[in-house]
Fold:
Amino acid sequence: MQKRRFYIGIDIADKTFYASIFSTPQKPHISKEFTNSMDGFQQFVAWLKQQKVSPGNSIICMEATGVYCDNLCYYVSSQNYPLVLEAPHKVKKAFTHLDKNDRVDSQQISEYAYRFKDKLTLWEPKSYILEQIQVLLTTREQLLKQRSANKNSLKAVKRKYVRTPLAEKTFQQSIDHLSKQVETIEKEIEKLIKKDTDFHQMKTLITSIPAVGNLLYYNLLVTTKGFTENINSKNLASYFGIAPHEHSSGSSIFKKAKSQRRGPKRPRKLIYLASLSLRTHNKCIKMYFMRKVAEGKSGRLVLNNIANKLIKIICAIARDRKPYIEGYLSINPQILLNNT
Structure:
């Protein structure tokens, strides 16, 4: 990444945010508080210009805090300032300071950007279609949780000795209404996919893979920003928290490689369910599962391996833009050269 003169750290909250400018360790931070609103955004950019901070000599860094930082990200991007969004735990691990408040946090974020400037990745706004799909998927998940809660409540009410028809009717109507809303959301997502030719073509390719349905494709589409990022299977598996990571040191520390189970829960759950489906309905995968279990491997471990295999297939198809071929075998080109 291009070397910058100024590194601006932002600690954002619901109503306000603190910004700190860092240039070199020999100079003190310059900090100021602003409101988390359009007026505050404009005052923030005007303050940067007063401090001779321009898009060409600076980089802005803030923690990914969801909806709190969303509007500021889009505004800063519209002003052509380079922006980086970092996971909060990364910034936290980089410091051991005991003091904590919004001003100190913004100063630490600016120092983090200075220290790790060679590892920062610039943030780019998602397309409006991807942004809408992400919101709809989150809304769908929330509605499903509400429907599940109502189903459990209805089941409990029906088990009582003294029945209450009004309560049962109310829960059933709520369940039916939520089901219709979920169905409406799924239809709207499909309409959005069809508006983009690339997304629609990629959907045809990815869903040609056994056990990969529409919902898994939607989540993968949002996660990879339209299959433009994290196409590497190892990176994607690590992001979902299913890639095994080694933990050893010398001869005294040696732990079995295991997955961290971190990352977004929704796509990880869908990949796990797809792995279960492959284990049950795919002949080759079923034989692989039974063979590994017979060797003494844990069933959950083998399912995790199947999930990693599935991600490899998904990434290969997204990269090559070719549909899934049943029984396809990859051949090393060197073998073909040796045989000629």
